[in-house]
């Protein structure tokens, strides 16, 4: 999969692909990441990329010409590319959006700075607008990196044998169960016995129950859109009863 990232700060992008899983993915051809400096497409001696807003007001707006030239150049090579503007106005990025973006062979990610990009870029070129959360960043670069990371690790082969995207938190709408490794006893805290039992079915049930309990306690709203089996529902009912029993012991709670 190709990620073409239009930015005024290409170094911010490159630094992310020098280590770990993403470096390996680049090295073995699983992904290609091309930071494109928007300034390289700006005209004139000073290669200006921003200007004051029409109508007045504070802040600067990214000019349409350099971004258009950068998109045209990318599209010449990848005409089918899907173009995304990173903006707090976009749809909120999550695991489902990451899976959705996997269907495109090439993504062009436009990183805005300042007050934003000239509206005509949005109208003419943008297929999708994505936000990584309800807060304002100084630019779209961290958002582009979040998207490239989350989408890349879903590409078959990118994670290799060391872990599987299918077991992640959110892959089935639940949070992940707790993980332990050696030592068995660490500063007085023990690994749960069941994980040492060798009983794979019991371990599976314990992990599922832990996932359900964590989700119920930390992110209950996720349960509404997760895919639960009959066994899951039984476990949740059992947990719910237990929680209610504990709460009933304390006078003054309204459950
Ligand atoms: N640019 C500035 N803030 C952003 C956000 N929250 N998500 C994506 N792009 C942004």
What's the gist of this structure?
The chain has eight helices and nine strands. It has 255 residues and is α/β, with parallel strands linked by helices. Helix 4 (95-101) links the parallel strand 5 and strand 6.
Structural features, described:
The structure is a single chain. The protein has 255 residues and is of the alpha/beta class. Helices cover 36% and strands 16% of the residues. The protein has eight helices and nine strands. Strand 8 (185-186) and strand 9 (189-190) form a beta hairpin. The longest helix is centred in the last third of the chain and has 19 residues, at 200-218.
CATH topology of the largest domain: Alpha/beta knot
Average pLDDT number: 94
* Distance between the amino and carboxyl termini: 50 Å
Radius of gyration: 24 Å
How many domain regions? 2
What top-tier CATH class of the largest domain fits best? Alpha Beta
* Helix percent band: 25-40%
Sequence of strands across the biggest β-sheet: 2-1-6-5-7
Write the layout of secondary structure elements.
Blueprint: E1 2-7, H1 10-14, H2 20-27, E2 32-37, E3 50-51, E4 61-62, H3 64-77, E5 82-92, H4 95-101, E6 106-111, H5 119-125, E7 128-131, H6 141-152, E8 185-186, E9 189-190, H7 200-218, H8 230-248
Parallel strand pairs: 1-2, 1-6, 5-6, 5-7
Antiparallel strand pairs: 3-4, 8-9
Helix pairs in contact: 3-5, 7-8
Bound molecules: adenine (ADE).
Adenine (ADE) binds next to strand 5.
Task: List key phrases describing it.
single chain, 255 residues, alpha/beta, Alpha/beta knot, Trp Operon Repressor, Chain A, two-stranded antiparallel sheet, 8 helices, 36% helix, 16% strand, binds adenine
